[in-house]
Amino acid sequence: PGQTSPWGMNNYPPAPQLADHGVDDPVPMTFVVVKHGIRYTGMGAWQGLTSDDDMWRVALFLNRVESLPPAVEAAWRPMPR
Q1: How many whole angstroms separate alpha carbon 49 and alpha carbon 64?
Q2: Least enclosed by CB within 10 Å: which of 5, 53, 74, 77?
Q3: H-run or E-run covering 62
């Protein structure tokens, strides 16, 4: 968390680090973005790369990243911010 991935370093504008602050969009809208990407941005489509079930898990995680249980938060962010 907190760093741009090697795949996103050359994107302009830089891809947002959604796992650091989550998203405000409804989960179904986030799922559509994960599945189909956003044209002309660093957000590529995940369709064909993983299952719909996994994309739903990503969408749900991004929606709840600001309110993770303490044990999950500790595992997700092992280094101090």
Answers
A1: 23
A2: 53
A3: helix 52-64
Residue type for position 25: D
CB atoms under 10 Å from CB of 61, counted, come to 18
Q: How far is CA 32 from CA 29, 36, 46, 47, 58, in A?
A: 5, 6, 10, 10, 11
DSSP-assigned letter for residue 50: B
Q: Are 15 and 47 in contact (CB under 8 A)?
A: no
Q: What is the structure's pLDDT at 79?
A: 54
